[in-house]
Amino acid sequence: MPATMSATPVIANADEDVSDDAPGDVLEAAPLFEGLPRKVVENLRENSERRRYSAGHTVFSMGQYDGDEFLIVLSGALQLNIVDAENGEMVIERFGPGAVFGLEAAFSDEIDAICPRVAVTAADEAQVLAIEMEPFRKLAAARPSLMRNIARCLARDAAALRFNRQAPQTPPEQRVFAALMEFVERAPASGEWRIEKMPKHRELAERAGVEEAEAASAVAALIQDGVARRDYPALVVNDIRRLNTLAGLG
């Protein structure tokens, strides 16, 4: 979502970088830049900076991120908070090693409306590589090899979002809750969060990649804990924040 490394408070909040690795070495190891010509990597290195943040430190406060750069997580994790423009709910996402934050800003005209609603903190002690957006955008336009890597990266993220891909070790109930989130909508009249037509347990199980009994048990647990209630054929979500958390999304 970023545009020139003008976010100077980021530098102020970052701890001193004590790594011996050069930015060029880090760049070559990143999947986004895999197989690029040496000259392209050198150009990227000249417009990048490695930073380290202690757990809990602010990377971008709300309203600070302007799209002037994007970040590659080298180690640790970042937490992204986005305020939903329609309902004011906070959506939380975690970025681990290898993840890229802000790359969309290079190609989206709508990103300016999102940036003021974004905040980023270090969820754990984290090291990131910050890359200036404008030189990167120009380089991508001139280098098809870099553009192919960018397209692959964005396509992978889009596929993960669309198909809700989760690691095999994710608990079955969490995968069920994440699958349920795909059906949740806010009712215009009442303001309730609802699934107007609750999917059958078999359908939910197939979507989440779990057994049908596990899907049924997860839904029953939500109702028993008061997170949701049945309103046949609908399911009403009483606590959307809690469901977000249970689904591993917040």
Beta fraction: 15-25%
Biggest sheet: strand arrangement: 1-8-3-6
The average pLDDT is 79
- Order of secondary-structure elements: HHHEEEEEEHEEHHHEEHHEEH
User: What's the structural domain tally?
Assistant: 2
Look at the helices and sheets and give the structural class: alpha+beta
How would you name the CATH homologous superfamily of the largest domain?
A: Jelly Rolls
Helix content: 25-40%
Give the total of beta strands. 12
Tell me the layout of helices and strands.
Elements: H1 8-13, H2 23-29, H3 38-46, E1 48-53, E2 58-60, E3 69-75, E4 78-83, E5 90-95, E6 100-101, H4 111-114, E7 118-122, E8 126-132, H5 133-142, H6 144-163, H7 172-181, E9 185-186, E10 193-195, H8 201-208, H9 212-224, E11 228-231, E12 234-237, H10 240-246
Antiparallel strand pairs: 1-8, 2-7, 3-6, 3-8, 4-5, 4-7, 9-10, 10-12, 11-12
Helix pairs in contact: 2-3, 5-6, 7-8, 7-9, 8-9
Give a written overview of the molecule:
By secondary structure, this protein is α+β, with helices and mostly antiparallel strands. The protein folds into two domains: 8-163, Jelly Rolls, CATH 2.60.120.10; 172-246, Orthogonal Bundle (Arc Repressor Mutant, subunit A), CATH 1.10.10. Helices cover 38% and strands 22% of the residues. The protein has helices spanning 8-13, 23-29, 38-46, 111-114, 133-142, 144-163, 172-181, 201-208, 212-224, 240-246; strands spanning 48-53, 58-60, 69-75, 78-83, 90-95, 100-101, 118-122, 126-132, 185-186, 193-195, 228-231, 234-237. The strands form three sheets. The chain has a four-stranded antiparallel beta sheet. The chain has a four-stranded antiparallel beta sheet with strand order 2-7-4-5. The protein has a four-stranded antiparallel beta sheet with strand order 9-10-12-11. A hairpin with a 2-residue loop joins strand 11 and strand 12 (234-237). The two termini are 20 Å apart. 30% of the residues are buried.
